[in-house]
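If you are new to this repository, start here. Below is one unmodified record pulled from the training split, so you can see the exact layout before writing a loader.
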Amino acid sequence: MPGVSTARNVAAGPRPPLADRLTPAQWLALDVVAAVLVALWVVFDLRLRHGFRVELPPAWFGVIGAAVTLPVAVRRVWPIPVLAVVTTAVATLTALGRAQQDMDIMLGMAIYTVAVTSRRPVAVAALVGTETVLICGLIAAAAGARGPADTVHSLLAAGALWFVGDSVRERRRYLAACREQEAQHQTEHGRLAVREERVRIARELHDVVAHTLSVVTFQAGVGRKIGATRRARGPVRAPGRVKAPGTASSACRNGPRRSAAPWTRAPRRAAGSR
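And here is the target side for that same chain:
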């Protein structure tokens, strides 16, 4: 059946990538799950080597660690505020010498979202602000006799993820421009096809009208020629009156009687003369 074959053809077509099939709600759920898992990993220092173990951190570290990880769950809703909170928390832990490389995941996700969703000037300003705050944390760590060798990774992670997000945004913008240009080309092609069809119809109508006018002109010329010939021959006599059907029939009926009357009168005259 046609409907079944069409459905099979659609089903047999190439499927879009998984990232394009996910809905915003599903992306938000994934962000929540990732934020919670990383929060447990960072705050409670979950480790699997040498067996599973959990360490209870100080209260202040738990609060700052939660500020680093949990806001990423809503990074798609409020990207710039989330980046500000995460950057400030990472810089604070850097100044205290407690910054961990696991926190770079959250910082990278936050700045990547800003670079993808924001305009270029806003994204550049966010990068500059993030790097400035992180450098302030490094300066504070250096002033507190905590070397920046273990904390400079946050600067590198933020810069690298920002450039990745900026590249993704530019690529999306380029693909959107290509799709728009293709749509305009298809629209222009449709307009050109309609214009060509109109020209074809107008040409056919012109040919038909020209042929009809030629025939009319020829017939008019022939009529004038015939009329001139008849006028040269003389006036044409009008035909006599056509008698009514009743009159003709009565004449036909009376004709034999009138014609028969002389024959009947003739013998009588002949007898009188004798």
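Two things worth knowing about this chain: Residues 255-266, 269-274 have pLDDT under 50 and may be disordered. The radius of gyration is 53 Å.
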